[in-house]
Amino acid sequence: MQWLIFSKAERERLHPLNVALFLVAMLSVPFFLTTHLIVLLIFHLLFFIGIREWTVFRYLLLPLLYVGLMYAPLLVGASIDAYGIWMTGLTVAVFVTSSQLVFTLVRLEQMGPLFRVLPRLTRLTGMVLAIVPSLLRTWPEVKMSHPKQSLEVKLERIALYHLLPIDAVPSRLQRMTRRDVLKGLLIGGAFYGLTTSFALGAAFLLPLLLIFSKGGLRDAYYHYRRNRLA
Question: Is 136:92 a contact under the CB 8 Å cutoff?
């Protein structure tokens, strides 16, 4: 399924406002969706398995650890809210997978131009936007390539080779095209759908809006042709 995610050039054409809207919408999913969280979690995990992205399973150890610790009092006969603990752990798990979907589908540093209206915060904000996805993506590589180095050295390597400061981002917002407006309306509509009875459908739709883009369909077509001719 890797070919369903559109190319780097396609991602870079996303308007910063749409990137920001997608980020807010995806991170809101676990808090607006109060039912069927397990269905959405399974869908997210199947997606990551399909693209062979295994890092997310490492992050899911956190909600598993939380649920395990909260259930521990049962061993000594204590009374706990088992359902409440399960739902909290499930919400955190969906938050983790939703966050990883954001880092997979968009580049957060593209939002840099939005912060040009605050010159004093520009560089700081840009570095924060750059370090979060960069750290999550490159930490396993740096840890493997420098196994005996200290944590300070590893973080320095990440900062030296993998950060994109906001200075490298265009200073002005690009013009909104018809395609940008349409995609923004679709994302906004899905975001609004999270507050309705169609919340589960909206949660499924959000990442699909970016996966099945023009570039994604084109890549899928060439992938299909190449396999068929082979």
Answer: no
Helices 199-211 and 37-50: crossing angle in degrees, nearest 10, is 20
Distance of alpha carbon 40 from alpha carbon 44, whole angstroms: 6
Please calculate the CA angle 219-44-145 and round it to the nearest 5 degrees. Answer: 75
Rg of the chain (C-alpha set) = 20
What is residue 172's DSSP assignment? S
> In this model, does residue 58 exceed pLDDT 80?
yes
Say how far apart CA 28 and CA 18 lie, in whole Å: 15
Per-residue pLDDT tens over the stretch 167-223: 555 556 778 888 888 889 999 999 999 988 899 999 999 988 877 666 666 666 676
- Compute the Cα dihedral for 106, 112, 113, 115 and give only its sign: positive
Find the helix packing angle between 119-145 and 151-161, rounded to 10°.
120
**Residues 19, 69 contacting (CB under 8 angstroms):** no
